[in-house]
Write a structure and sequence with these properties.
two-stranded antiparallel sheet, 171 residues, single chain, mainly alpha, 7 helices
């Protein structure tokens, strides 16, 4: 099985359940809304407004990619847990959690001011560091999400292999 047909087979297998697709789509959409609201790109008050300033295009692009990757990862994990009855390793859960937390970067928004007023000077230092390195943090979280998706892809691909595929004519 070549690489392209393997990717096609795993994609058709993992995305065959419409219920998983709905859950994954909702998770990706909620993640997109939360990250863009925290980054002051999406506003809900006084009415729904969507504005991407020029200096936030990279962050917005990475948040869109991360939202898609979160949706794919949720779908793969649901398929692994429910259909393949395999256990998700702790590293996949940790990678997903780290990438979601780092991608959300709540301190890069007005939420950072709440942290600063609650926790004082240390929160200001951490908030400044995170907002100054927001693009790098998003890039790292995208890489972590890609690793988690590829790990799930490999688990699904390996579970689909037949143990008898190399046996031809009882050899």
């Amino acid at each position: 099985m070549n690489a392209l047909s393997s990717i096609s087979f795993v994609t058709r297998t993992a995305f065959s359940n419409p219920f998983y697709l709905i859950i994954a789509s909702i998770a990706g959409f909620v993640f997109w809304i939360v990250t863009n609201t925290f980054d002051n790109i999406l506003f809900f008050s006084p009415f729904l407004v969507f504005y991407v300033p020029n200096d936030m295009l990279g962050v917005f692009f990475l948040s869109c990619i991360n939202s898609i990757l979160v949706a794919v990862l949720v779908n793969f994990n649901l398929h692994i847990i429910r259909d393949l009855k395999l256990r998700i390793s702790k590293s996949a859960v940790a990678g997903t959690t780290i990438s979601v937390i780092s991608s959300a970067c709540a301190s890069c928004s007005t939420f950072g001011f709440i942290l600063a007023s609650t926790f004082g000077g240390l929160a200001v230092v951490v908030s400044n560091f995170l907002s100054g390195n927001q693009l790098i943090i998003r890039e790292i979280s995208t890489l972590i999400l890609l690793i988690a998706v590829s790990t799930c892809y490999i688990k699904i691909r390996e579970s689909c292999k037949s143990p008898y595929r190399y046996q031809i004519h009882d050899k």
